[in-house]
Amino acid sequence: MPDAKTIRHQISIGEWCGTTVGRAGRHVQTGLVILPKAEAYDFLVFCQRNPQPCPLLEVTDPGCPTPQTLAPGADIRHEVGLYSVWRDGELVEEVTDIAPLWQDDFVAFFLGSSLTFLQALADAGCVSSVGVVLYKTNIMCKPAGRFAGPMVVTMQTLPAAKVARAVQVTSRFQATHGAPIHIGDPAAIGITDLAQTIGPAPPNGIPPGDVALFWACSVTPQTVAQASAIPFMITHSSGHGFVTDLKDHDLAVP
Amino acid sequence: MPDAKTIRHQISIGEWCGTTVGRAGRHVQTGLVILPKAEAYDFLVFCQRNPQPCPLLEVTDPGCPTPQTLAPGADIRHEVGLYSVWRDGELVEEVTDIAPLWQDDFVAFFLGSSLTFLQALADAGCVSSVGVVLYKTNIMCKPAGRFAGPMVVTMQTLPAAKVARAVQVTSRFQATHGAPIHIGDPAAIGITDLAQTIGPAPPNGIPPGDVALFWACSVTPQTVAQASAIPFMITHSSGHGFVTDLKDHDLAVP
């Protein structure tokens, strides 16, 4: 397992192929939201009001591309594998480097990602039968200024005997979404068609004997950008986390 | 024990005499910071960067005097027992009602207070020999915009045999400062004279056999206002918490 700095370097020079799902060990991974300073206040309040989908681990000063606490020396313009660029709520392009788009008034927000606790879950024998699948729910986030919209979740399915253990393990990781927000029937949170995922890999239903668990997801701001027609936002693309220098135990509750 | 709404009503009509220290049971109490919207962004970032002294439980929309989550229907202009008014970093007055000062651009920040966990500590047999004493430390907060300055702590002293239990109990209450930030020698965090407290009641030293424990304190923004000469800020006065509808267990980690 390369260290975080090496992973980020490989990403920045194009030597890292694909996502960071399950490939950064116990390093804390984050989602990314970049906004002009004029929109940053409302988004900060949005994060405060919605800590489950948006657990805010760091905010940069305007124009500064380095998260001083999570990854001193990193440059957020190059070190995420794939970025999504949103204009007026539409995904207009996906790019591997955002240096050409960077502005002096950009503020970067780093949101704890549930990619972080996959290793801890695996160590506890909790490995999803269907992988990690993203869905839009009918749970509305608390609005803040112009930011409003539905919560996105990750679904994993586990044998019933593993459900309690998965709750225990992830409860310790509040900073990366914490415990599930829902367990059981997908329809109860508005997921009526399991094939209607965000991103690829729709599952073949929930395996017999398995229970579905749903965690709040830091892809939520992207759905909020769509719902609220945010004029300009850059995010990570789903599955492409920012790999920080921190380990999961650095942020775990006792 | 009256309920939270009754306590707040008694405070608002002047029937509640004195502080809220140890007088609101297991209700979550908060510190209060009110700033004009123009200063609110920097303070939000300050809270994100300093979650131990500034665990932010709610932010109101500009001009709205009601914390919708913590106490629906409350009016923050009347329902704190004593307010401190700061201009250019100086404490200019203490008042029992801020309606005459209220402006449409005011944003209110509610910070979890360690007054909240005094009852849980008492239930665990952890009762400070010296009460709760406030000190300014030499620990500098992480700055954000114009907000910079030293951390304030509360000191309690306990028999050595109770120290581990006090850490365990308060670790569950991350939203109201969590575990101690220091245990032992006060001089190690810049407290060289135990008589130099913030507020009244200097202790007669640390009792023989006792150990001193220090928790981050939501009075910190007041010291930061002084250090940074913030143009205008209203806060609670030390010991006069805002009594919310929530109970401590509502915010405790598992």
Would you give an account of this structure?
- The structure is a homodimer of 254-residue chains.
- By secondary structure, chain A is an alpha+beta fold.
- Chain A folds into two domains: 136 residues, 3-Layer(aba) Sandwich (PSTPO5379-like); 100 residues, PSTPO5379-like domain (PSTPO5379-like fold, 2-Layer Sandwich).
- Chain A is 20% helix and 28% strand.
- The first copy, chain A, has six helices and eleven strands.
- In chain A, the strands form two sheets. In chain A, strands 1, 2, 3, 4, 5, 10 and 11 form a seven-stranded antiparallel β-sheet that branches.
- Chain A is globular and about 50 Å long.
- The model of chain A has no long low-confidence stretch (mean pLDDT 95).
- At the A-B interface, helix 2 and strand 2 of A face helix 2 and strand 2 of B.
Task: Give the helices and strands, then pairings.
The structure is a homodimer of 254-residue chains.
Chain A: H1 4-12, E1 27-36, H2 37-49, E2 56-59, E3 83-87, E4 90-95, E5 106-112, H3 118-123, E6 133-140, E7 150-159, H4 163-171, E8 182-183, E9 210-216, H5 220-228, E10 232-236, E11 242-247, H6 248-251
Antiparallel strand pairs in A: 1-5, 1-10, 1-11, 2-5, 3-4, 3-10, 6-7, 7-9, 8-9
Key phrases:
globular, homodimer, 6 helices, PSTPO5379-like fold, PSTPO5379-like, 2 domains, 20% helix, alpha+beta, 11 strands
